[in-house]
Amino acid sequence: MMSAEITIVERSFDFAVRVVRLCRFLETQDRVSRTLANQLLRAGTSIGANIEEAQAGQSKADFTAKMSIARKEARETLYWLKLLKAAEIMEADKLNDMTKEADELVRILTSIVKTSQLGKTQNS
Predict the structure, then answer these.
(1) Which of 8, 86, 103, 107 has the fewest CB atoms in 10 Å of its CB?
(2) Domains in the chain and their CATH numbers?
């Protein structure tokens, strides 16, 4: 396992913990906040779950597919965080760190997927 993968495993887990805590708070708010919390919770915790699955991938293609799903979930999470800010459900300054981390996760996962696909192409 490459050190970048170890980092992404740890970062995605820590991020999921932050998502769970935020969603717990949103669950105490109005119906709209609770609905958005459910969407955010599914996407934000799925990132790390898919990365974990990728670590046990049965093949390079399986690894790439799981990392691609993790990237999609990270992008969706970023969307929900931006929506929470834009709709003024949460103050922007309270979500800036999480939004930045979600964006960084997208970038890291994009790099991992591209590298994995490049290796697959070269080995074919």
Answers:
(1) 86
(2) 3-123 (1.20.1440.60)
